[in-house]
Amino acid sequence: MFVSAGIIAVVLSAVGIVVTLGSSMFLGFAWCVRRTDAVERRLSARIDEVEHKLSARIDEVEHTLNARIDEVEHTLNARIDEVERTLNARIDEVERSLTDRIDAVGHETTEVKIAVARLEGPVPRLLTRAR
């Protein structure tokens, strides 16, 4: 069998075209994958940086708020204690005052009872003996 030079040239050209197209498609796909990986790495780095900054800021805000809450709690506890002491003192004062007034009313009531008893005197004996 005899193959002409033209057929060999066509076959070799076809093989060359297939190899060239296949390799260029493979290299193009590899370039896309590399490019996607590079973009993904950059985005991951930026996301990690932003996450770190936000975590630091959240920690700072949390610390500041906890300090302010502790300060407000301390101030309010002091005010509540002061109000409680003041109210207890006023309640004690009112209790003493009312106790003194009740004792005075009780004493005056006793005085009135004695005065009424003196005014009434002993029961008169107006009964005469019938003999």
Strand content: under 5%
How helical, in percent, are the residues? over 70%
| Number of beta strands | 0
- The succession of helices and strands, N to C, reads H
* Overall form: rod-shaped
How far apart the termini lie comes to 189 Å
* Classification by helices and strands: mainly alpha
Largest sheet: none
Count of DSSP-assigned helices: 1
Radius of gyration: 55 Å
Unreliable runs: none
**Which whole number gives the mean pLDDT?**
91
Keywords:
single chain, 131 residues, mainly alpha, 89% helix, 0% strand
In short:
The chain has 131 residues and is mainly alpha-helical. It is built from 1 helix and no strands.
Verbal overview:
With 131 residues, this protein is mainly alpha-helical. It has 1 helix and no strands. The chain has one helix spanning 5-120. The longest helix is centred in the middle third of the chain and has 116 residues, at 5-120. The model has no long low-confidence stretch (mean pLDDT 91).
